[in-house]
Specification:
Number of domains: 1
Order of helices and strands: HHHEEEEEEHEEEEHEHHEEHEEEEEEHE
Largest sheet: 10 strands, mixed
Number of strands: 20
Distance between the termini: 59 Å
Strand content: 25-35%
Radius of gyration: 20 Å
Structural class: alpha+beta
Length: 360
């Protein structure tokens, strides 16, 4: 590269960093429709105890410009909310039938379907990108989101229990890594568009969209990702052949931290807290919100964990539960050491289960 080709005038630099240019690109969106590098969302259960009993549609929200949770300005079933604003870009891409964007929506429980695919990953999410950048949302809501032709909505089945979502904006080159993660997670994609211009860079996504035979996947894979604004994330994913509890067997040991874990406890055989390896995993029992309300883990369908020790500051949000049958399911977690995300989630933990079943 010559010196001249690397130089930008002040006017060009101003243009490249201008909020209007950033806002025009595909990205996670806040409740004002503005582009953000990432956001985290915690949909509250319908039945909480305390001063503010929930509706099952309220959510806590934070993004890269905030330091703590705030109560969402809208309800989760409204298009003005963060999920509605973000997903709206995907629906617009669907309606335009543009060859310049690619998208995929996946869920192990598909809208308008009574069947659950046990052969596919226990994964829920959606992504949208063009050749510049895009976003990836990982969430815990069954039957969500609706097919693009149906428009935005939120399933009634997702109201009773707590749910989580994380959205991250990525530059285009990061989606080649995400494509590799998709191979191991093997999601059930029910709506997608992958024009030919993207297929060479995203071969696994192309096969998943076409429901073609996939190449052999690694037992597990750890990917280092960077958001569009340069924030570091780690994405853990395991295939169905990695038959173990991802929290205990891998994530806690890889991050070298004891974890407090929150996950769905209604189906199958719940796993107890585990102190068998060097780094332990403790089940969360009780959660307290900034709204002076509390709810028990059994009222929560979300999947997340935080470091027990404040100095480690790991937070992971993802797909899999701590249950015996989940050892045979593929899925994963997005992890970060962002101190604001960590403090927001860690401060929710009121009570957790020790390994001798005594509450702490």
């Amino acid at each position: 590269m010559t010196v001249g080709s690397a130089w930008c005038s002040p006017a060009v630099l101003l243009l490249l960093s201008s909020p209007s240019l950033w806002a025009a690109q595909i990205s996670c969106r806040n409740e004002d429709g503005e582009a953000v590098d990432w956001f985290a969302l915690y949909k509250l259960p319908k039945y909480t105890r305390g001063e503010d009993a929930g509706l099952g549609l309220q959510y806590l929200y934070m993004d890269a410009l905030m330091q703590d949770w705030q109560l969402g300005k809208y309800l989760v079933n409204m298009t003005q909310g963060a999920l509605g604003q973000t997903l709206g870009q995907l629906y617009e891409a669907y309606e335009s039938k543009s060859n310049n964007t690619a998208y995929a929506i996946y869920n192990d429980e598909v809208p308008h379907s009574d069947s659950t695919s046990w052969k596919r990953g226990h994964t829920k999410g959606f992504l949208l990108l063009d050749k510049s950048q895009g976003f990836w949302v990982i969430h815990s809501v069954p039957l969500f989101p609706p097919f693009p032709e149906d428009g935005y909505g939120y399933p009634a089945s997702g109201q009773s229990y707590g749910q989580t979502a994380i959205c991250i904006t990525f530059k285009y080159d990061q989606f080649t890594e995400i494509d590799q993660q998709m191979l191991s997670s093997n999601p059930q994609i029910y709506s997608c568009s992958l024009p030919s211009a993207f297929q060479a860079d995203l071969p696994n996504l192309q096969k998943l969209c076409a429901r073609s035979r996939l190449p052999s996947a690694p037992l597990h894979r750890l990917s280092k990702l960077q958001s569009a604004r340069g924030e570091a994330f780690l994405h853990f994913v395991k295939s169905h052949s990695f038959v173990d509890d991802i929290y205990v067997a891998w994530v806690a040991q890889e991050l070298k931290t004891d974890l407090l874990a929150e996950s769905w406890q209604h189906s199958g055989q719940k796993l107890p807290s585990n102190c068998s390896l060097q780094y332990h995993v403790y089940n969360i029992n009780l959660i307290g919100t900034p709204l002076n309300s509390t709810f028990h883990s059994i009222e929560d369908h979300s999947k997340w964990s935080v470091s027990k020790k404040n100095e480690d500051q790991w937070t992971c949000i993802g797909d899999l539960n701590r249950a015996v049958e989940q050892a045979w399911r593929s899925g994963g977690f997005m992890c970060t050491q962002n101190e604001h995300i960590y403090n927001a989630f860690r401060n929710l933990v009121i009570q957790y289960e020790s390994c001798n079943d005594a509450s702490t």
